């Protein structure tokens, strides 16, 4: 059986990579993928702690996070398609204000 701290280390590494991607990158698609890494690292920790305590609540929370992530991706991709049609760029610095 794999020890709990391996899962925690994996979650921390994924979280740090995702946070670095959100803070350092300027492409909106890369920022969205980094947010996915952040949420997946949280899912790993939820499931690991749920398994460690022999409780299903960690898996239930992970399923909710996955559902919220799917909704976030659908909305974000719709916004990105509209953004590319109007501005023809995906760089965060070029798109500072979204006006209706």
TrEMBL record:
The membrane topology noted for this protein in its Swiss-Prot or TrEMBL record is:
Multi-pass membrane protein
Q: Which UniProt keywords apply?
A: Cell membrane, Membrane, NAD, Quinone, Translocase, Transmembrane, Transmembrane helix, Transport, Ubiquinone
Where found in the cell?
Answer: Cell membrane; Membrane
Purpose: NDH-1 shuttles electrons from NADH, via FMN and iron-sulfur (Fe-S) centers, to quinones in the respiratory chain. The immediate electron acceptor for the enzyme in this species is believed to be ubiquinone. Couples the redox reaction to proton translocation (for every two electrons transferred, four hydrogen ions are translocated across the cytoplasmic membrane), and thus conserves the redox energy in a proton gradient.
The molecular function GO annotations come to: NADH dehydrogenase (quinone) (non-electrogenic) activity; quinone binding
Q: Which reaction does this chain catalyze?
A: a quinone + NADH + 5 H(+)(in) = a quinol + NAD(+) + 4 H(+)(out)
Biological process according to GO: ATP synthesis coupled electron transport
List cellular component terms (GO): NADH dehydrogenase complex; plasma membrane
Which InterPro entries does the entry link to? NADH_UbQ_OxRdtase_chain4L/K, NUOK/Mnh_C1-like
Per the UniProt record, which EC number(s) apply here? 7.1.1.-
Task: Report which gene this protein is encoded by.
Answer: nuoK
Chief location category: membrane
Please report which protein family the annotation says this sequence is part of.
Belongs to the complex I subunit 4L family.
Output the Gene3D superfamilies linked to this UniProt entry: 1.10.287.3510
Q: What is this protein called?
A: NADH-quinone oxidoreductase subunit K
Checking Pfam families in the record gives: Oxidored_q2
Assembly and oligomerization: NDH-1 is composed of 14 different subunits. Subunits NuoA, H, J, K, L, M, N constitute the membrane sector of the complex.
Regions that span the bilayer? 6-24, 29-48, 60-84
């Amino acid at each position: 059986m794999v020890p709990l701290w391996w899962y925690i280390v994996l979650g921390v590494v994924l979280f740090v990579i995702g946070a670095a991607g959100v803070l350092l990158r300027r492409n909106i698609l890369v920022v969205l993928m980094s947010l996915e890494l952040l949420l997946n690292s949280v899912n790993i920790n939820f499931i690991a702690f749920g398994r460690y305590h022999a409780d299903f609540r960690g898996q239930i929370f992970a399923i909710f996070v996955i559902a919220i992530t799917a909704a976030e991706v659908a909305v974000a991709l719709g916004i990105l398609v509209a953004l590319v049609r109007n501005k023809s760029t995906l760089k965060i610095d070029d798109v500072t204000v979204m006006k209706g």
